[in-house]
Design goal:
heterotrimer, A alpha/beta, B alpha+beta, C alpha/beta, A: alpha/beta, globular, C: alpha/beta, Rossmann fold, Nucleotidyltransferase, domain 5, 3 domains, 5-stranded mixed sheet, 43% helix, 20% strand
């Protein structure tokens, strides 16, 4: 089983397909869940505190908006764990955790610079595209083996 | 990540054969120690990771290509995320849901194809980009034609 | 204070939850008896909003903001006011923030406050903004007042000085200006001076308005009819004195210790910044410069107008190091006029750096506060921003005039 980072990180379909084809999706919901269940924090709605954007300084300097750094503090952990990745282009379908274009650009860059097996494709609009989307993802996921992930290029 | 961690999973259903209530019955039959909530999309279940994963595997079997599952961060009915506590508007991720939900029938068809062992030819649907020389040719041709017209 | 009615504030924002400050917004809202709501929209509305609005941006959450703004303008949401908030230093969000604010202002009657936050934003910072916003929502008719009537008084209890004015039939008839020592005593002193000049007694005053940081204390003691934060009051006072009550305007108030930059539409504040973090950007810097030059603060402006700030090298805006630079220049032979000009320019540059980063500058730019009387300051502002700067009469009494003007709305009550 390979840990597959998905982008948009809160996508139902990507999370489902990775799981369905036998791998572990790395999705932001897991990180949000951990935050919300941390009883000692009291910063609703998602328990990100003003301390979190500081953790995000690891990825971007102070001149980068706090919303980007706060989101990076959530996603950074997933990026570090990722052994493979599926990136969907045209991120205008994503909201909330993935609602900031600048954060999304940074995440995509960091994934690409990791040199892990990676599938990049456009988000489907038509029926044919949706079908092809699923087939490509299946092909990619079936080709992943634990041995080749995490250290090789594409 | 431990099996005892509490997690939440969202079961999204688009099916004329299976209803959220069928799944709820399945969950009760499993005798798992988890919480279930029906929603407009399907249902949300919350419990220990080991229990949730076991039940989810069973649920998927009910209608594998029409049930879609993802983990969710926010507990069901969370006061900050529920519309009721937000004066109308849903949590931000909801709109992504709306969008993906509309595409689920297409994904189902693809999954059905895979089940039948069909592998459609992969077509690249993007047309090739126009080269600058070709654009120049077109412009010159159009200009000539319009000059002839006047 | 009277029990205020609940105000529903629609929040249009991007990044507040991820900056960890959503709770601060909620807390500040509760303090002014307001409820934060999020307008409901569908994915289809989000898809088309870029085209309908005419502003195509990359971030989905900003599109969500625009779609929600449209919903508010279309009257589909039960809201009384709007808070627009995005991350500080995000250019994409700043464009959306400003355009949404303008759009809502032009197409609805909803008051709007816009703010750019960082992770350091606290409920305290947000409180003044939400106080101004809920006031505008609750007192719309009061704020539409364009003329002062009857005989009213206004007191502005500031951190450095306390100002009082007496107004009668749309004219200032008495003023009082004293350093703030003890809040109550200084307020009493300032008011008495104003009353003496106007030739009236306390019993003649038909209504009293108070503002400034000591407003709650003096408001209770004097049983004021209006107790109001200074953003709303100064905005109103500035457009009234500058005779520009309609359309956009910018107010820059350089006080003794605290500065404000306010972007105004029809006399109502929309975006503003308040500072107080650096003495180098304040009237205090000018006072120290005057002292070093051996002139009275009232003479500094005239000197500065004759000087050339370019002739003096300043390596710092800081009140300590900046003043040192000025002293060094004097030692090296700089002439007092140039040093005075450099000091004025330094203060203005610092206001530009600190206050104007998130505030749009629309003409007319109305300069108020004690420092506006030092002629070199508005001149430096004009040179820096390349726009005309207006200094209205009684500009140092702006808060007191605004309070007296608004207080006349209480005469019949």
């Amino acid at each position: 089983m390979v840990k597959v980072f998905i982008y948009p990180s809160n996508s139902l379909i990507l999370s489902d397909l990775v799981d369905r084809f036998g791998h572990e999706p790395l999705a932001v919901m897991q990180e949000i869940g951990k935050k919300i269940r941390t009883a000692s924090l009291d910063s609703p709605p998602v328990n990100i505190t003003p301390e979190d954007p500081k953790i995000g300084l690891k990825y971007a300097a102070v001149e980068v908006p706090s919303g980007v750094r706060g989101r990076m503090s959530l996603l950074g952990h997933l990026l570090e764990e990722a052994q493979a990745a599926i990136l969907v282009r045209e991120p205008d379908i994503s909201f909330g955790c993935m609602g900031c274009a600048r954060t999304n650009e940074l995440i995509n860059f960091l994934v690409r610079s990791k040199k892990i097996p990676r599938l990049e494709m456009n988000y489907p609009v038509t029926e044919d595209e949706a079908k092809s989307f699923v087939h490509k993802i299946r092909e990619f996921l079936e080709g992943l083996t634990t041995a080749e992930s995490g250290n090789g290029g594409e | 990540m431990s099996d005892d961690d509490i997690i939440i999973k969202m079961i999204v259903l688009h099916s004329t054969f299976t209803l959220p209530s069928d799944i709820v019955i399945k969950v009760y039959e499993s005798k798992a120690d988890i919480m279930v909530k029906e929603t407009c999309f399907g249902l949300i279940i919350e419990g220990k990771r080991s229990e949730v994963d076991r039940v989810v595997t069973e649920i998927r079997k009910l209608d594998p290509n029409r049930i879609f599952i993802k983990e969710r961060g926010v507990p069901p009915g969370d006061e900050y995320r529920c519309r009721a506590g937000r004066g109308g508007g849903p949590k931000p991720g909801f709109h992504q849901h709306e969008l993906e939900f509309a595409l689920l029938p297409y994904f189902t068809e693809a999954l059905d194809e895979i089940e039948r062992g069909e592998m459609p030819e992969q077509k690249d649907t993007t047309p090739p980009r126009l080269t600058i020389n070709k654009l120049k040719e077109i412009i010159e041709e159009e200009v000539k034609q319009s000059e002839r017209g006047y | 204070m009277e029990k205020e009615s609940l105000v529903k504030i629609a929040q249009l924002s991007c990044g507040s939850e991820y900056s960890g400050i959503q709770k601060e917004i909620q807390t500040a809202a509760e303090m002014v008896n307001a409820e934060i709501i999020f307008p409901d929209i569908t994915i289809d509305e989000i898809k088309v909003v870029g085209e309908e609005f005419g502003l195509q941006v990359a971030s989905p959450d900003l599109k969500l903001m625009m779609a929600r703004a449209k919903e508010l303008v279309d009257g589909k949401v039960n809201a009384d006011a709007v808070l627009i908030a995005t991350c500080f230093r995000c250019a994409e969000a700043a464009l959306v923030r400003n355009e949404i604010r303008r759009y809502i202002h032009e197409n609805s009657k909803l008051p709007v406050i816009s703010y750019s936050f960082t992770e350091r934003t606290t409920s305290g910072t947000l409180l003044t903004r939400l106080e101004a916003l809920t006031t505008t929502a609750r007192r719309r008719s009061l704020l539409s007042r364009e003329h002062q009537e009857g005989l009213t008084a206004g007191i502005d209890s500031g951190s450095t000085t306390t100002k009082a004015v007496i107004m009668k039939d749309d004219k200032v008839v008495g003023t009082g200006w004293v350093p703030t020592v003890k809040v109550m005593e200084s307020a009493t002193d300032a008011l008495e001076r104003a009353m003496e000049e106007a030739g009236i007694t306390r019993d003649d005053i038909q209504a009293l308005g108070v503002t400034g940081y000591g407003r709650f204390l003096i408001g209770d003691e004097f049983k004021a009819d209006l107790i109001q934060e200074e953003i709303t009051v100064n905005s109103k006072g500035a457009v009234y004195l500058a005779d520009h009550q309609k359309g956009p305007a910018t107010v820059i108030d350089i006080g003794g210790m605290d500065n404000k930059a306010i972007s105004i539409q029809d006399g109502i504040p929309g975006i503003f910044t308040m500072g107080g973090i650096c003495a180098g950007a304040s009237g205090r810097f000018l006072e120290m410069t005057a002292k070093r030059l051996g002139v009275d603060i009232t003479e500094l402006g005239a000197l500065a107008v004759k000087g050339m700030q370019e002739h003096v090298e300043m390596n710092s805006y800081c009140i300590v190091f900046g003043i040192q630079s000025l002293v060094n220049s004097l030692a090296k032979g700089s002439i007092p006029t140039d040093v005075a000009a450099a000091a004025c320019y330094s203060v203005v540059e610092q206001v530009f750096e600190q206050q104007l980063q998130e505030v749009e500058v629309n003409e007319p730019l109305i300069m108020v506060g004690g420092s506006s009387l030092i002629e070199g300051v508005p001149m430096a502002m004009k040179n820096l921003l390349k726009i005309e700067v207006t200094v209205p009469p009684y500009s140092q009494y702006i808060g007191a005039v605004g309070a007296a003007l608004l207080a006349s709305g209480f005469i019949d009550k």
